[in-house]
Amino acid sequence: MGGHGSRGGGLARARQRSRSIGTLRAVFHGWKLVGALCVILFFAAGGGLYVFPVFIASLQAEFGWSMTEISGTAALFAVTMGLANPLVGRLFTRFGARTVMLAAAGLSVLTSLAYAGLQNLAMLYTIALVSGCAVAGTTILPAQALVTNWFQEFRGRAMGLTMLGIGLGGFLLPSFNEWLIRRVDWRMAWVVGAGIMLGVVVPLIAVYVRTRPSDLDLCVDGVQPRQQADDPAPASGLSVRQAVATQTFWLLVGVFLLQLVGVAALNFHFVPFATQEIGFPAREVAFYYGSTVGFSIVGRLAFGWLADRFSPARLLTLSFLLLAAGPGMIELCFFALGLRDGQLLWLYAIPFGMGVGGNAVTMPILVGVCFGELHFSEIMGVLMSGFALGIIVGIPGAGFIFDRTGSYEGAIVACTIGLLLAMLLSLWIRPADPTLQRAGGR
């Protein structure tokens, strides 16, 4: 009887596994793609955008470079990434997502190995230039374009879950790399990063990334063909030339640039402001800085859910209000009222983090609503070419104000005003072609 019970239990487990496999196969490939993109962004964007500062102390110790010399790396990276986005958009349209992302991921592997073999400052700058192209081709723009192609009714939730990878990577990977540096040396830490890209990111791209549902004979949102009266409608939308000729495009350019300048300046200068000007302990300030990243994760999820129910244009407005509230509370609490309680930094971290996350989700959704899916990657690539402006204008601009006045107050006020202006401009954004306003444009 024991043998029969054992065989019966094994048969039950086999049936359960069969049902699980069947359920997995029944899941719409778009959701599998979202899961893969979340992991890809965790490593490619979390590592590419947030990890380098952890290595600064090691570079100074080994090579004796000044902070100014090392900071030039960030500027070169940002300029290259920004200028590469329009090219990535065009390549995405011409060759497809998988080809572009695989090539860029391979380039990321090579740049990580090059960092591991770093010898001089010229080599550091060269790697930063190449790395900007690699990160542009594996992270934000391709992920946004893929979600836009695969989802309509559930685009908000899909975008929020996808962008979650960036926030989680930015939150966890710096600490992980700092631990690696202590355990195995900074050069070997880059080798580990290359191994993760090759062993995790590249296979995920190869297996799950497809440019459109039609590549797998599927429909947007996983709608079954029998649920549609006719064949699935082809992707529609304005060309880049048509989009650039609209008022909507230039309003989006304005709000995007104002957001980039303000957020870049605040992210870079928050720690020196709170430690040097206000006098809070570095460990306490680091905690609140990390908390902004944590709340950006909450913002991505919340705004993704809301974007499937409410107008993304109004949600973008709300995200700018939250962004402006962060520096606005710093001005009120620490300058206008002269308070010096560290817990007041929550009044910055919570709204600013939520605003960063909400903005990251609603901006690409709104671009899709305004201009359609057909040329989304190219249009978004042109808009994202302004990424470099946040580094070139926002960060040095805030530093210049501090050097001239001895205080960050002027820079914080300027960021608050700029983000409020972006909020006002977002109120005027409407779909460039009313026929493109579907569910996402409620």
How would you describe this structure in keywords?
single chain, 442 residues, mainly alpha, Growth Hormone, Chain: A, 2 domains, 17 helices, globular, disordered C terminus
List the helices and strands and how they pair.
Elements: H1 2-26, H2 29-50, H3 56-63, H4 67-95, H5 97-116, H6 121-138, H7 140-150, H8 155-184, H9 186-208, H10 240-244, H11 247-277, H12 282-307, H13 312-336, H14 346-371, H15 376-384, H16 387-405, H17 409-426
Structure description:
The chain is mainly α and 442 residues long. The protein has 2 domains: 30-215, Growth Hormone, Chain: A; 240-441, Up-down Bundle (Growth Hormone, Chain: A). Helices cover 78% and strands 0% of the residues. The protein contains 17 helices and no strands. It has helices at residues 2-26, 29-50, 56-63, 67-95, 97-116, 121-138, 140-150, 155-184, 186-208, 240-244, 247-277, 282-307, 312-336, 346-371, 376-384, 387-405, 409-426. Helix 2 (29-50) runs antiparallel to helix 7 and helix 5 packs antiparallel against helix 6 (121-138). The longest helix is centred in the middle third of the chain and has 31 residues, at 247-277. The radius of gyration is 23 Å and the shape is globular.
